[in-house]
Amino acid sequence: MTKSITNTNAESPAIARVVPLVDVYENDQEVLVVADLPGVTQENLHVQFDHPELTVSADAPRPKGGTIRYERQFRVGSTIDPARIEAELRSGTLSIRLPKSESYRSRKIEIRAS
Known about the structure:
The chain has strands at about 5, 15-20, 20-25, 30-35, 45-50, 55-60, 65-75, 85-90, 95-100. It is mainly beta. Strand 6 (about 55-60) and strand 7 form a beta hairpin. The chain has a single domain, classed as Immunoglobulin-like.
């Protein structure tokens, strides 16, 4: 995980661009993206899926004035079912569930005896 900030003159109420800290987990059922977005409210948060990219952007107030702009993009594989994507923001933590399509999930293959 990395966090980078540019345009962060503390004397200026400019926009600070931040790449949020993110954890990505994957299992047979889904991909889970968890992003740290302190100070962000649901009204200032945008999550967009435009295959194959997931984009997260949000604005939050800076403690000394101005705005923090969070921006992050992810490339996801063709295994994701876009109709079932869900996102939840709770206490500055964004969780995005990207369920895998049934046809891409791993499954046990039964072997018939002859």
